[in-house]
Amino acid sequence: MQSIWFFDDVNLFKVLCPHKFKAYKKEHDFDAYKKKDYIYFEEDSANKVYLIEKGKVKIGYYNDNGDEIVKAILSKGELFGEKAILGDNVRDEFAQSIDNATSICPIGVTTLHELMRDNQTFSFKIYKFIGFKFKKLERRLQLLLFKDTKTRLIEFLDELCSDYGYDCDKTGDHVIKHPYTQKDIASLIGTSRPTLNILLNELKEENYIDFNRKEIRILKKSA
């Protein structure tokens, strides 16, 4: 299983968290969160970025109607709040723990800039990460604007296979163990949960997928 948030098989947490560096270790602590605890809210000051040591974090925002829009579900080794690196002073999204034992490595923007300045290769990896993440969000926006709902779901499943799947480069079944609820998936592809249920069952009847609460299996095509 692989994750798009890892570059060249390097877990950002392993090389970035300040407790790994002698100059910062004594002054650094991890932050612990329970399920539904917020790490930050929209409009909060953006003066840190965060790495996940363990647990899961939901990134999202609320639209004009007050509905929650989920942008991503992140897990161990992944980075969020990265817009602060580029100079954003205020959050335009929220970050919320969705695990009862989430541990976060917070990094002040000033500290991060110092680490990046001292290591050109690592600095390149951080900017590559940011660019890749923005590219993925742009692609998702294009799907929402130009594709019908069923196509959006199928392409999202392909994306999930890249992010959370096993054997996605082989000819057999593609097994996806993912952290999303059906509500999250519906939000990510811009539809309602009832419509998502209908489409999932249609794909199941077409022998395209099989699924349960935590796993989706993209079925091998018959010759």
Automatic annotation (TrEMBL):
Pfam families (alphabetical): cNMP_binding (PF00027), HTH_Crp_2 (PF13545)
Keywords: DNA-binding, Transcription, Transcription regulation
InterPro entries attached to this UniProt entry: cNMP-bd_dom (IPR000595), cNMP-bd_dom_sf (IPR018490), Env_Response_Regulators (IPR050397), HTH_CRP (IPR012318), RmlC-like_jellyroll (IPR014710), WH-like_DNA-bd_sf (IPR036388), WH_DNA-bd_sf (IPR036390)
Domain of life: Bacteria
Domain spans labelled Cyclic nucleotide-binding: 12-91
SUPFAM superfamilies, per database record: cAMP-binding domain-like (SSF51206), Winged helix' DNA-binding domain (SSF46785)
Domain HTH crp-type, residue spans: 147-222
Protein's recorded name: Crp/Fnr family transcriptional regulator
